[in-house]
Amino acid sequence: MTKYLVTGCAGFIGSWITQTLIQRGETVRGFDNFETGRKQNLSGLLDHFEFIQGDLRNAGAVARACEGIDIIFHQGALPSVPRSVKDPRTSHTANIDGTFNVLEGARAAGVRRIIYAASSSAYGNQPGFPRIETMVPMPIAPYPVQKMAGELYMRSYWQIYGLETVCLRYFNIFGPRQDPNSPYSGVMAKFALLMLRGERPTIFGDGEQGRDFTYVENAVSANLLAAAAPAEKVAGRVFNVACGQRHTLNKTYQILSELTGYTHPPIYGPPRTGDIQDSLADITAAREAFGYEPLVSFEEGLRRTVEWYKQEMHRAQPPASS
Ligand code: UD1
User: Fold this and answer.
1) N or C: lower Cβ tally within 10 Å for the chain?
2) Spatial contact of 278 and 129, defined as CB atoms under 8 Å apart
3) Do the domain assignments include residue 251?
4) Ligand 1 closest atom vs CA 185
5) Given the CA of residue 189, which atom of ligand 1 is nearest to it?
6) Residue 143 annotated among the catalytic residues of the structure
7) pTM recorded for the entire structure
8) Tens-of-pLDDT digits for all 322 residues of the chain?
9) How many angstroms separate the alpha carbon of residue 96 from the centre of ligand 1?
């Protein structure tokens, strides 16, 4: 029976992968240090999988977590471009040393395959849309450099050691469980919560920057398909995971306003250091290699996301009983 390890299992995407594997009746082990992952993301799940609290920077703990595992979904990381700009060393150790520890642990334990959470930020600001995997990566800020280094390591371990590694370049994944409360939170989570609270979000720059926003269920499905695909189609390769549509921040703000009932215009601030301007993916490679198709549209994803944050707010502040 296949045994799965999910690093970052208490995080936004990791917890969805963990939950989906459990629902499929799979045997799952999860690894998280709760630095950015949250216990509440695992509520209702902890009795159904083996959880190890540990840090990716601890090579011994990672090696133990890899024992007896067939397939790893390596989602654990310290995300965020601005976090990496402010404190590159901390994100470097989590993202590069952490990924190296996963590869070494996997090699020692005889793990068959690793699906790695790579980042579309690797493309940087080079000309040419949509982004296609054959483009030369041009990462700008430390975080994309770190994620890109992980990709190179993944490919190396396939070529040198025959460990089947697959890199999925995520394009702005959003959805329920994305933490809205950190200064480094993704824009969708932040804006949804602020609007629901009646607080005014700030758009960095003129709002005409675009992103290929992708609902989390699409990313989960890409991971599971990549895990099940024949090695000759996926091993040592990189794939975009996106919807193949670009949405500006201004337009996204407008749709979120309608969904939340928020009526005020945004505040505009200076552009954020290290940001890319635009992002739009070609998803043909993933489609052809493992049958990936976006399952949930941008609009439907936004609707589900806003619904979830609404419920979260009610859970956090139960109505006073009369
Ligand atoms: C995001 C991910 C990153 C991933 C990358 C590529 C997060 C936190 N980051 O980076 O892990 O590798 O996509 O998929 O999920 N913005 C505002 N106001 C705010 C916050 C953000 O205007 O309050 C703007 C930013 O300046 C940027 C855009 O929104 O132009 C998106 O920012 P963000 O959600 O942080 O994502 P990325 O930096 O694109």
Assistant:
1) C
2) yes
3) no
4) 8
5) 34
6) yes
7) 0.97
8) 889 999 999 999 999 999 999 999 999 999 999 999 999 999 999 999 999 999 999 999 999 999 999 999 999 999 999 999 999 999 999 999 999 999 999 999 999 999 999 999 999 999 999 999 999 999 999 999 999 999 999 999 999 999 999 999 999 999 999 999 998 999 999 999 999 999 999 999 999 999 999 999 999 999 999 999 999 999 999 999 999 999 999 999 999 999 999 999 999 999 999 899 999 999 999 999 999 999 999 999 999 999 999 999 888 876 665 4
9) 20
Return the residue whose CA atom lies nearest to atom 5 of ligand 1.
Answer: 172
- The domain of 146 spans 3-173+216-242+277-295
Write the CATH number for 281: 3.40.50.720
Domain assignment of residue 312, yes or no: no
Q: Ligand 1: which residues within 6 Å by Cβ?
A: 79-81, 119-121, 170-172, 184-187, 190, 201-204, 209, 211, 249, 272, 275
| Distance from residue 140's CA to the centre of ligand 1 (Å) | 14
Atom of ligand 1 nearest to the CA of 277: 30
* Given 4, 116, 123, 143, the catalytic residue: 143
**Domain membership flag for residue 224:** yes
- Of all protein residues, the one whose alpha carbon is nearest to atom 21 of ligand 1 is 187
